[in-house]
Amino acid sequence: MAIELDAHDHRILAELQADARLPMAELGRRVHLSQPAVTERVRKLEDAGVILGYRAVLDAGKLGYGIRAVIRIGNTDEASLLQALERSPEVLTAHGVTGEDSWIFEIAVRDVAHLREVLSRLCQQTPTSTAIILRTVREHAPLQPLPTTPAAPTLAAEQRPGMKKPRRGGASRG
User: Fold this and answer.
1) Which of 102, 134, 159, 173 allows an S-S link to 155, with CB 3.0 to 4.6 Å?
2) pLDDT on residue 157
3) Which stretches are tagged as biased composition: Basic residues (predicted)?
């Protein structure tokens, strides 16, 4: 369920998604609030579950992971798959999905031999489809809060079509 956010909250979320390490004083300057006010708003956003955490974004290639891939997994025994998932630190994301596939995983592996090892661990006797990621054009894009739907404007009596504007300041004519 979405919560009500104002313009300051939207700016705070945008700034923190761009740089979660901003000191509260600098964040306050950027969103035109005092440090105590912005600190309180961030705490409320955390308490409401809007901000789930802060993390470092790592370069998989510099850590030795030369291949990233997407694995689509067909119908399988969920309990076994979840156990294999617990033993597979190579899995970066795991989504249960609708459609022909039951699961979609994104993984990072050293090389093709490592890819084969992970596939055999995750997908024994299960139909899969694997695609190696050649390039990434968008990743970790900032999430924009949805705009709140404003109430439909109502027309005042003097603005309704076909209605004459009442006379102001004079005696009524007969």
Assistant:
1) 159
2) 47
3) 162-174
pLDDT at 165 over 70: no
Instruction: Specify the CATH number for the domain of residue 116.
Output: 3.30.70.920
**DSSP result, 23-61:** -HHHHHHHHT--HHHHHHHHHHHHHTTSS--------TG
84 within a domain of the structure (yes/no):
yes
Q: Which domain holds residue 110?
A: 61-132
What type of residue sits at position 33? L
DSSP string, 96-150: E-SSS-SEEEEEEESSHHHHHHHHHHH-TTS-EEEEE----S--SPPPPPPPP-P
Tokens of residue 90, six digits = 């190579």
Residue at 21: amino acid letter: R
The residue behind tokens 């694997």 is: 130
Give the whole-angstrom CA distance, residue 105 versus residue 117.
Answer: 15
CA 89 and chain centroid, separation: 22
pLDDT band at 146 (very low <50, low <70, confident <90, very high): confident
Widest distance between CA atoms in the chain: 97
pTM of the model: 0.72
Distance CA 29, CA 42 (A): 14
Question: If you average pLDDT over residues 127-147, what whole number do you get?
Answer: 90
Tokens of 103: 């699961």
In this structure, how many other beta carbons lie within 10 angstroms of the beta carbon of residue 85?
Answer: 15
